[in-house]
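cron nightly-structures :: item 1 of 1
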Amino acid sequence: MKKRLVKSIIAAVMIFSAGTTGTAMATPSTHLWSPSTDIQPYGVFHLTADTYLSVKGEDEQVGGAVGSRPDPVINMGLTLGILPYEKLQMEIGFDHITGYSFYTGSDLDDSPMYFNAKLGIPEGAFGEYFPALAIGGYMFGTRSGEARAGQTAEPGTDYNIYYAKIAKTFDPLGRFSVGYYKGNEKLLVDENGKEEDDGLLLAWERTMTEISDKLWLSIDYMGGDNGFSAISYGFSWKFAPNVSVIFAYVDTLNDKLAFVEDWFTVQVDIDFNLFGK
């Protein structure tokens, strides 16, 4: 058993390293916008279909006429749990993202593939008071380069964001999460090109059992002053045990860099077990 555990951890780390070295915008298990401590169980596929719509039109001419609304961002992703252990879990995934870039105002359809990975321990794994822990990375892009905000020239997509997060449930208030992220300093910059490659991660979430076990609320904060910095508000409704839909409002913190002030997102999430359980 011990040998099996060691081999599985080594294999997981190797998969993680292979996905993050020298490379892809991808979404691991998240709250509304930023990564959460949640991890897909072993053998469970998570299929996501996310659509992001600009709430307001552009203030500048970026890939279209002045005042035009940017194209929606469409993300089709797949994540899989790969460790067969209750107290140590890992997921890996990829996304195919097309449409208007959140970050540069340009079209990223030429480099649509991104990858992610996450390793963690679930809440309560080692006792009632043990919090959930997770480390991981996402936004591992297939094209290297520097930020070119405000230009239609192709920027890099290797944002390479690494993060660590801790979460704990305090009934009846809900679950609170806190963490920190750091990414590629060449791409995570403010509107003046100044390095803004790190920030605080905060989140609150709660299943509203007083109303329905199917209703979940969340507030999600990703700090900093770069194109991914945002505070998001939203809810989800579970239409089936393995199917839920998130409706959220994403308020970007640096409107000058993101080109649009806000996003409205609808995210359809479907889980299915590889072993049919």
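cron nightly-structures :: done
The domain at 2-273 is CATH 2.40.160.40 (Porin).
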